Amino acid sequence: MGTIQESELIINERGAIYHLDLLPEELASTIITVGDPDRVSKVSSQFDRIEVKRQHREFVTHTGYAGNKRLSVVSTGIGPDNIDIVLNELDALVNIDFKTRTIKHDHTVLNIVRIGTSGSLQASIPVDSWVASTHGLGIDNLLNFYRIEENEEERQVLQSFITQTQLSHRISQPYISSAAPSLLKHFVTNFQHGITVTCPGFYGPQGRVLRLGLSHPDLIDRLTNFSFGQHRITNFEMETAAIYGLGKLLGHHCLSLSSIVANRIDRTFSGNAAANMDKLITTTIDILKGL
Ligand code: R1P
Ligand code: URA
Questions:
Q1: In the predicted model, what is the mean pLDDT of residues 213-242?
Q2: In ligand 1, which atom is closest to the CA atom of 33?
Q3: Which of 46, 63, 93, 231 is 20–30 Å from 4 (CA)?
Q4: What's the CATH number where 264 sits?
């Protein structure tokens, strides 16, 4: 393996990775990602001690301890394009030697848990429910820039999704990736499990009409009605499939947890979103402390 050039792996004057502005020692091996930069302090306010606070653009990181567990919380901002930056830089922080600019011989596995908000695609999953995503199914295109390796089960679900939904090729070539079983098994009580669809936008790409017409006005019906064996689509948002896809390719363990703020079937929106998010954060930290 050769050295990785300065234009490919960008390290700033502090010796920190470019977008996240983090040094390798400033990152814990268990990481919570959140979309909203203001959610970072909501997570770290539940730490017993904070040792690092950094911010560059929308990427805010706090690293500290919850009990004996060292945790980092990092904001990604909105969308799969930001996940490309965050996942590649988190991986580089542990698996690339910044001095020699070479890939380290020993691979470090990160546990990466997204805590985000999401829209429900099932009447039976009301606002203020929590979803743990068994799979991320991406219609956002990010993973099509990488060499994707799907397993047999993922291939079958994806093929069935393509056949049943008949989404135009002009939208996307969908991809799929699963949660890390080692994390998912700890998030069962109080969580609904299902496939999360990751969209490249909040309005048209999630079937919302304000002033513009949509290419697929029945997008929500097509997603809600999909089923393959026990699998169904529970919700959609804007990061999960990108995290699962890149995380798996890079050799990390990933899980996405969502607090449902909107139900797109009964058209309700939570009146309790902030308090429900705080509860999800507390529950998640309690579980991660035990791992
Ligand atoms: C859209 O409002 C944002 O909310 C969801 C979506 O994935 C998207 O990022 O997650 P967060 O609440 O974590 O940002
Ligand atoms: N986040 C999304 O991406 N969609 C929703 O409907 C709610 C939160």
A1: 98
A2: 13
A3: 63
A4: 3.40.50.1580
